[in-house]
Design brief:
By secondary structure, the protein is α/β, with parallel strands linked by helices. Helix content is about 40%, strand content about 15%. The chain is built from 14 helices and 14 strands. Strands 2-8-7-6-5-3-4 form a 7-stranded mixed β-sheet, with helices on both faces. The structure holds pyridoxal-5'-phosphate (PLP).
Length: about 400
């Protein structure tokens, strides 16, 4: 038999899968494990949004729509971006697709030719690196250590640029770090991108989840020279608890990007479901109270998780400012034996913590940060308490 695609055969299954598979198996076997791997809100989609989806089905909105989404939906995205972020994207520069994840993939193949470089600050959300590879590009990793609050500097960005560099991917607020770039920090990076004529793929899917009153600035709000190079990635999964509806969008500063993306999508996925678009339209145009309510609950959980983690001997974390993740630093545990296993990195820790401590957290080895594990606080306060009690016991027992 002939070989499969060389490019895509190299794509790695998510590095978090081993722990996740073991966690699910233990759960199925009736072992009382608790999990902190969730990448999605634990809330239900608000009723008025669900009703809009149901009504669309009853109204026979069950046919194909334009590939990039219905016009009312694209206009609603444009209006929401203006209201929330103060950025102007004409409705015909908006492309709706199957979740922010698929939009990102479509952006990569719209921008990249084989060998093009894409700068990716680490720690990064694991799908960026694989999507860049899947579309023939080369991820160029720039280290954003905890000592820099997990952020890269303009000088680091500049140093990583070569004539083959096409784009920067920035996730703000970040998964997995929860950190937020301030307006000034963004401006520094944007200036470098403009000077070197780079596209900026700005994934702002967590922008509604900022804490302590920290203001959020969209990359596209930094003036026309920056906006026209931006592709803003966003969606309703996180802000409206709609992960299963698969609705995301790309707002393209350059109309050509929207056109090529939508042409390619017209030959692959076509549009997303018409009824999902109706629900997304309601999310963006209907009452927004649930967004703030969820944000408030997440902030309470973050406060509790961060303060307790920092009281536990051997581990620590910096205070994330947004999203729903905490990076726990386990540097001090490296070289120690826990649960009968020598801890070399986060893969070792997460496996033994699951087997012996009965808690599943996500190893950040696959995110470019091998001394960290990620806790998601998209779980109940009771679960957070229980997980931390178990961590304390696990580390004490050694
Ligand atoms: C940073 C980031 N971008 C995009 C996504 C994908 O979101 P969607 O459900 O819209 O595909 C996720 C989901 O975990 C994410 O963390």
């Amino acid at each position: 038999m002939k070989e499969l695609s060389k490019i895509n055969s190299r794509v790695q299954a998510s590095s978090t899968l081993a722990v996740d598979a073991r966690y699910k198996q233990m759960k199925a076997d009736g072992i009382p494990v608790v999990g902190f791997g969730a990448g999605e809100p634990d809330f239900d989609t608000p009723d008025h949004i669900k009703q809009a989806g149901i009504q669309a089905i009853l109204d026979n909105q069950t046919r194909y729509t334009p590939t990039a989404g219905t016009t009312p939906l694209r206009k609603a995205v444009s209006a929401r971006l203006k209201e929330d972020l103060g950025v102007e994207f004409p409705w015909d520069c908006i492309v709706v697709s199957s979740g922010a994840k698929h939009c990102l993939y479509a952006v990569m193949y719209t921008l990249l030719d084989p060998g093009d470089g894409v700068i990716l600050p680490a720690p990064y959300w694991v799908s960026y690196a694989e999507q860049i590879r899947m579309t023939g590009g080369v991820p160029v990793i720039v280290d954003a250590p905890e000592s820099q609050n997990f952020k890269i500097s303009p000088a680091q960005l500049e140093a990583a640029i070569t004539p083959r560099t096409k784009a920067l991917v920035l996730n703000n607020p970040s998964n997995p770090t929860g950190m937020i770039y301030s307006r000034e920090e963004l401006q520094g990076l944007a200036d470098v991108c403009v000077r070197h004529d780079l596209y900026i793929i700005s994934d702002e899917i967590y922008y509604t989840l900022c804490y302590d009153g920290k203001p959020f600035t969209s990359m596209a709000a930094l003036g026309e020279e920056v906006r026209k190079r931006c592709i803003l990635i966003n969606g309703v999964s996180k802000a409206y608890a709609m992960t299963g509806w698969r609705c995301g969008y790309a707002a393209c500063g350059d109309k050509r990007v929207a056109t090529v993306m939508s042409n390619c999508l017209s030959h692959s996925t076509g549009s997303i479901g018409a009824m999902n678009q109706a629900a997304m339209l309601e999310a963006l145009t209907g009452p927004q109270d649930s967004v703030e309510e969820m944000r408030r609950v997440f902030q309470e959980r973050r406060d509790y998780l961060v303060s307790r983690l920092n009281q536990i001997e051997g581990v620590s974390c910096i205070r994330p400012e947004g999203a729903f993740y905490v990076m726990m630093n386990l540097e001090k545990l490296v070289g120690r034996t826990l649960g009968g296993r020598v801890i070399r990195d986060a893969d070792d820790f997460s496996m033994v913590f699951l087997e012996k401590g009965l808690v599943a957290v996500v190893s950040c080895c696959g995110f470019g940060a091998p001394n960290f594990v990620r806790w998601s606080y998209a779980v109940s306060m009771d679960t957070i308490r229980e997980g931390l009690d178990r961590l304390e016991r696990f580390l004490k027992e050694g």
